[in-house]
Write a structure and sequence with these properties.
single chain, alpha+beta, Alpha-Beta Plaits, NADH Oxidase, 2 domains, four-stranded antiparallel β-sheet, two-stranded antiparallel sheet, 8 strands, elongated, binds flavin mononucleotide
Length: about 270
């Protein structure tokens, strides 16, 4: 029997509206004799019960009422503002050389933790690398890995050849784009693939929030692929805690340029039944 009663109902305040049980995704709370009760096995700590209660009558040890900021008016952007906001996010590959203060990166990652995760499992950790020397070594190691893949005739080779050639000619940072900061997301090996899915949503939140605090970001997919392949030279540089693996990565810095037009993409492919 897993159920430990985590919820506390203030019977004076409870108006028996049943919203807490209706929104509970794991059927942890049910209405018994018109009163909410914890009858289920597992609470996933999502906090929906506490957040939805119109009278602040319910508290949940896993999602304490005291930590939930009251929301007077639900902030619905008009459709045009929302679309413009989402379509104006771009991958930034040209950065100012200015260092990004730790507080700013923490501000960015503080938003990442509010992203949705499977079963509210969260579980994404970060290692932030902002030493120029280490960033340079990461680029070199990733390029060396690409060269090996090309030499071995890997199916990835066609994606690498012209980039590596460009690197040979210019020494330009084709991996981290001279970003002053690399945010490496990590999760326990035993938490894959969910940890990777959770990372993607979390970093998507960070990417969307970044311009609001003056930052630009870009996914570091080549770096991630190299790490996921277990390339020892790269893993040695990262010095991740034992049993943790890279689940994603973002370059971050102050953008050098601004974009004057919104993104366009292929039309959505939608079928109906
Ligand atoms: C999983 C993933 C990996 C990516 N890896 C890289 C990368 O290694 N280097 C890079 O410059 N851009 C990378 N990108 C950025 C994409 O190239 C970019 O999102 C795409 O071209 C669309 O451009 P936009 O993000 O500016 O709209 C990656 C994006 C994603 C989602």
């Amino acid at each position: 029997m897993i159920n430990m009663t985590l919820i506390n109902i203030d019977q004076e305040k409870c108006i028996r509206c049943a919203l807490c049980s209706k929104v509970c995704p794991s059927s942890y709370i049910t209405m018994e004799d018109n009163v909410p009760e914890a009858t289920g096995q597992i609470c996933i700590s999502c906090g929906h019960c506490v957040a939805v209660c119109p009278t602040a009558a319910i508290d949940n040890q896993n999602a304490p009422l005291v930590n939930q900021v009251p929301l007077e008016t639900f902030p619905v952007f008009d459709a045009h503002t929302a679309e413009t906001f989402l379509r104006s996010r771009r991958s930034i590959r040209q950065y100012k050389s200015t260092a990004v203060p730790k507080e700013k990166i923490l501000q960015l990652l503080n938003i990442a933790r509010f992203a949705p995760t499977g079963g509210n499992t969260q579980g994404v950790g970060y290692k932030v690398i902002n030493k120029a020397e280490t960033l340079h070594k990461i680029t070199t190691a990733t390029v060396d890995w690409m060269k090996e893949k090309i030499a071995l005739g890997s199916p990835l080779a066609p994606y690498f050849t012209s980039r590596v050639e460009h690197y040979r000619k210019t020494s330009g940072d084709i991996i981290l784009q001279n970003a002053p900061c690399l945010i490496v997301a990590m999760a326990p090996q035993s938490f894959l693939p969910r940890g990777r899915d959770n990372t993607h949503f979390s970093l998507a939140y960070a990417e969307l929030y970044a311009p609001a605090i003056g930052l630009g970001t870009c996914w570091a997919g080549f770096f991630e692929a190299c790490a996921a392949d277990g390339y020892p030279d790269l893993l040695d540089l990262l010095k991740l805690p034992p049993n943790m693996v890279v689940t994603g990565a973002l370059m971050a810095g102050y953008p050098k340029y601004t974009y004057k037009r919104l993104v366009d993409r292929n039309p959505s492919q939608v079928t109906w039944d």
